[in-house]
From TrEMBL, chains A, B:
Keywords: DNA-binding, Transcription, Transcription regulation. It comes from the Bacteria. Residues 13-73 form the HTH tetR-type domain. The keyword Secreted does not apply. Residues 36-55 bind DNA. The keyword Ubl conjugation does not apply. It comes from Microbacterium allomyrinae. GO terms for molecular function: DNA-binding transcription factor activity; transcription cis-regulatory region binding. InterPro entries: Homeodomain-like_sf, HTH-type_TetR-like_transc_reg, HTH_TetR, Tet_transcr_reg_TetR-rel_C_sf, TetR_C_23. This is TetR family transcriptional regulator. PROSITE patterns: HTH_TETR_2.
Amino acid sequence: MFSSAIVPPTKSQRTRAHIRDVALVSFRERGYDATTIRLIAQEAGVSVGTTNYHFSSKNHLVQELYLDVQNAHREAAAPLLAASGDLVHRIGIVYRCGLDQLSAYHPFAPEFLSAAVSPRSPINPLSDESAPALAIVEGLFREAVDGASAALPAEFRDGFPHALVLAHLLLALFWVYDRSPGQKRTHALLERGLRLLRLALPLTRLPLLRKPLRELLDLVADVKA
Amino acid sequence: MFSSAIVPPTKSQRTRAHIRDVALVSFRERGYDATTIRLIAQEAGVSVGTTNYHFSSKNHLVQELYLDVQNAHREAAAPLLAASGDLVHRIGIVYRCGLDQLSAYHPFAPEFLSAAVSPRSPINPLSDESAPALAIVEGLFREAVDGASAALPAEFRDGFPHALVLAHLLLALFWVYDRSPGQKRTHALLERGLRLLRLALPLTRLPLLRKPLRELLDLVADVKA
């Protein structure tokens, strides 16, 4: 494994990366429906056979898009997380950076949603194929929770990031439907949710509320499974 | 208007009702994708032109399906609601009867979802075209809340049915993904949600919780608008 970073990529690896880059630009500029393997091959200057050798379907390229978006999400959030200890502020950073990464795709969001929403779709965000991209999001929320200066009660710390990921998927669903300029209604909903979270967090220490809150996190864990 | 109930339907009204009935059977047996205007016309023994005269697209027939499902939902729930005064029990009746009406369509749920989920789709449950069917559901939840023997605090009574409708749409989304026999995971999730509601209801009277709860209902109202 040592020195792997300085081994130059093979020709095959370069071709793969080039096809991938062309596809990501196409998804961003043309959307899901109008992007085809034939078009990508043409723009990448390779044959359809070569494209299929590296990516056996358009949906495999969508998975590359998901990874690209979530890696950019992580890179945008990391320096901001390093600078804040406040739990609600940290959670807000992860949500806001996530929405920012999506914004370029908003014109095509309905067609991505139609293609991705079926439980049979390999580009469904909850499918096995999408698990690596979703794991990046979950890791970010876990880092936001675990790295806060005032920790949550231990009994909630494990389940809470799951609930935040589910809320992130629902927020993204709302965002698809949001036709306001710059999707400002989605941003307003997020800020409202964060204010509510700040109001609700001290309540997690009330003995009377511990059971309902644990039950709520258990219910959310059921939704994700 | 008087005596309208005994005026026999015109030939045109009978043709319309017949086409509609044939389409509803087709949606139930073939699903969304395989049901076409051509096939419905053929099975109804009328021309494609006659079918298009009464229903200008397949999606207009889906609206008839929505109304049929929600009218059956109301008919199933009404006698049960009349027999119970307990708020959580009444809410459970509306959810359970709603799931029961959907169960025949589960094999085709992914294709209905793909067709309906886009914000541009006229069969999206939140579209203007679907408003009459959704109003039936909201009316049922409002009746469940307003007719309970122990009333909710007044400040929550208006917003709560909205929140229940939103939860119903999310439960239906979970149900589409539920591959367990008889969708028993959806039913288990519902029962868990109802237990949580029973646990949480007394808390609506705690002064400390009123503001977060009002904020939560305001947030939900934002989601629906």
